[in-house]
Design a protein that fits this description.
CATH architecture of the largest domain: 3-Layer(aba) Sandwich
Strand content: 25-35%
CATH class of the largest domain: Alpha Beta
Shape: elongated
Number of domains: 2
Number of strands: 13
CATH topology of the largest domain: Aminopeptidase
Helix content: 25-40%
Order of helices and strands: EHHEEEEHEEHHEHHHEEEHEHEH
Distance between the termini: 38 Å
Number of helices: 11
Radius of gyration: 22 Å
Length: 342
Amino acid sequence: MSWRTVAAANFAAHPEYAAHWRGLHGAGAGSPLLALEFAAAALEVFGSGAELLAMHVDQAGQIDVMAILQPARRGAWTTFQPSQAPIGFWLQRDTRLQPAQLAGLLRALPGAALLLGLTQCDPMLLERPADTPALTTLDYIRTARIELTGGFDGYWDARGKNLRANLKKQRNRLRQDGVATRLQVSRAEADMAAAVADYGRLESAGWKAAGGTAVAGENPQGRFYRLLLEAFARQGAASVYRYWIGERLAAMDLCIEGGGCLVVLKTAYDEALGRQFSPALLMREEACRALFDEERLASIEFYGRVMDWHLRWSDDIRTLYHLNAYRWPWLRRLHARSSPAT
């Protein structure tokens, strides 16, 4: 068993590496967050050029782990993960992590690597291992999902009375005022550039514009989401939800699909309308109903930190985690002593 590392830039265009990544992705859970298209878009827009593609070969001569890694501080490497990626790019054939593989990777990485960090791991994709003398994990955030089983009516009846009553009241008010609502779903590649532009205008009108974090058509975030959604749309796996209140664009979701789930990557809503209505929640109710009725997917994943509104929509909560692997056990003990208590 051995590790091999090569430059990660443009690896998705390399027939051999791309085929291995697609094969591993298809053999596992198939999360869209680990699809080749996601990794390629993230590297193209946010990569520094220093990233490595690491590949582990098992005893049968087959690649069973692939990861995109980036240098951190001196002697440390982490999974490549720009903020737009909810989890780090670590892909393997099954969900069980092998500590011996991590020890081998530390020896194979350049620069006398002492520490390897796997960031924002999902226990559904990579089982959380027990701590060892040279490996430790720590909680990151709690996240929520909605299981699309049992029909929408049963799901909705299980939601809290306040949520159901509040949205019903808003819909009645709109109806009484003669204002129609409409949910529009775009899935074609040709529609994605306009969708990202619309999303950028919606988000740029809100609080994110002041902090400089809003998506815009020409900034790196806008470029990334356009590349990503167009690539997924070519596979029939992108969906953009627009929610209209009258003739006004009120809310949007940018989503990708795969492995039986829909991942909500970004949500924005018209904050001016938010003083009277809950545009994103009205949109989510209709989108959920449609997804339940389609019976095409098994779950909706949010991947963000659990907020109060998530808890009104889901009881299915799990904890993402970070993992640190050390070259020698004494480094873990030293790191623990030097880290502030939590």
